[in-house]
Amino acid sequence: MVLADVSFIDLFWSMLWFFFLFIWIVILVRILGDLFRDRSLSGVAKTLWVLFLVFLPFLAVFVYLIGRGDGMAEREMGRHLRAEEQFEGHVRDVAATGEAPPAEQIARAKELLDAGTIDQSEFDRLKAKALS
To answer: What is the pTM of this model?
Structure first.
């Protein structure tokens, strides 16, 4: 029986190693993402960091987090703030180009009627559309 050969300790250590492997991959992805999004680093510096991460991964991660860890948080916060500003600007643009309130639409239609641009039937149609 195969399950009889697996103890609880073996299962626990396997899960623990899998957890550490997962955390390690997450850290590497975060560092690589920060590296490639950072506009202040040149291409050569990014290449050297990637080579450092490939050939001496543990040392490179610790050096990166110690040396550039504060900057990671600041760059991430800056990205979030820029994204929020873009979103708010988009919402303002969409709200500004939306339809006017019914009273304003009727007032415009009345101005057109008074100017002779439209006739009474067209005014009634615009008024009904604004109120619906």
So the answer is: 0.60
Do 37 and 64 fall within a single domain? yes
34 and 7 in one domain?
A: yes
Q: Are residues 93 and 104 in the same domain?
A: no
- The answer to whether 31 touches 73, Cβ cutoff 8 Å, is no
Pairwise CA distance, residues 72 & 82, whole Å? 15
Backbone phi and psi for residue 98, each to the nearest 5 degrees, phi listed first: -70, 175
pLDDT in tens, 64-120: 999 998 889 899 999 999 999 999 988 887 776 667 788 888 898 899 889 888 889
